[in-house]
Amino acid sequence: MPVQIASFAPEHREAVIALWHDCDLTRWYNDPDHDLDLFLAKDNSTVLVALQEAQVAGSICVGHDGHRGWLYYLATAPDARGQGIARALVEASEAWLKEHGIPKVQLMIRQTNLEALGFYEAIGYELNPCVLRQRWLIDRGTPPEDQDAGRQEAGKLAVTITYLEMLERPGLAHIHPPIGMATALIRAHKPTISFYRYLYNTVGEPWIWYERRAMSDEALAAIVHDEAVELYVLYVEGVPAGFVEIDRRDRPDVDLAFFGLIPDYIGRGLGQYLLASAIDLAWTDGAERVTVNTCTLDHASALPLYQRFGFVPYERKEIEIDDPRLTGLLPPEAGK
After folding, report:
1. Quick one: which of 96, 118, 113, 114 has its CA closest to 105?
2. Are residues 68 and 90 in contact, defined by beta-carbon separation less than 8 angstroms?
3. How many Å apart are CA 292 and CA 275, to the nearest integer?
4. What is the domain class of 156-327 according to CATH?
5. Backbone dihedral region for residue 124 (phi beyond 0: left; psi -120 to 50: alpha; all else: beta)
6. Deepest in the core among 33, 49, 174, 299, taking most CB within 10 A?
7. 3-class DSSP state for residue 172?
């Protein structure tokens, strides 16, 4: 269905505010009417809408401080997603900023908003190395619990888990390991538990992997020595650099149970090669569905990387866990 990007008009107000609520963009401290008026009242900001058959299907607010552009309230109607509306709104906002002589654009995304993180990563938005700090200048009172993501019990970690699936083998172009790097991906048949723990602990410590640390050797061996569980180790110049664990115990569903690189090898072009190889291996032996999950404790690029390779989110859960750095499962500096 054709989409038209247009400037906000008064008749769009009710639909835009309803869209913000539908997309869960408002919080206890937001007054949507007031925010709209602010964006529309000045020359350094505006509101754009995406129209389908004269109906509001998306919106974005854009503004600048004379040097930096900012994006706010990007929203697409749930029944209009997958049509490129969000990308079109962002591109129109970037064009508006260029017309006003603004050299860069940025935005803030909540860490739990994995869909937005993945979207902006996919269209080329980079992580900003700056640290964001804030101070409330209003009386916060007692905000509703479901809109105050920062509130959690002491010693707990709030974690959002995203479950993804792939229902058919993707037509991925063959991805080679980095040039000049001698690599080998070798299956480890019934690895020693000490070797498995070395891989799991070393790869997972920066991302707070803790579940397998809590297992006894016997319980862990029952999993990794199962014939339906495959462990592939990536070697670089003869040194372990990462691993992937493929679980076929629920075949024809196959799960990429663990995937990651040892910290020394992150950023050297190996992640895409390892993931492409893992997907290729998973789709053997009669697989009909391949799954994987990631969470907000993982690398920020994990979710967009899975999506770029063809995985699609199908479920999201929010949980709280005991901080394993306080229970002794992980060292205090893990994840920092």
Report:
1. 96
2. no
3. 11
4. alpha beta
5. left
6. 49
7. coil
d(CA 159, CA 157): 6
pTM reported for the whole predicted model: 0.59
Q: Can you identify the CATH homologous superfamily of domain 4-147?
A: Gcn5-related N-acetyltransferase (GNAT) (3.40.630.30)
To which residue do tokens 């309803």 refer? 18
Model pLDDT for residues 133-142, shown as the tens digit of each residue: 788 787 656 5
- Tens-digit pLDDT profile for residues 89-109: 999 999 999 999 999 999 998
List Cβ neighbours of 176 (8 Å cut-off, separation of 6 or more).
Answer: 273
Q: Please choose, from the candidates 20, 8, 91, the residue with its C-alpha nearest in 3D space to the C-alpha of residue 49.
A: 8
Residue 150 has pLDDT above 50, yes or no: no
CA 90 to chain centre: 19
Q: Could you give the CA distance from residue 115 to residue 304 in angstroms, rounded to a whole number?
A: 9
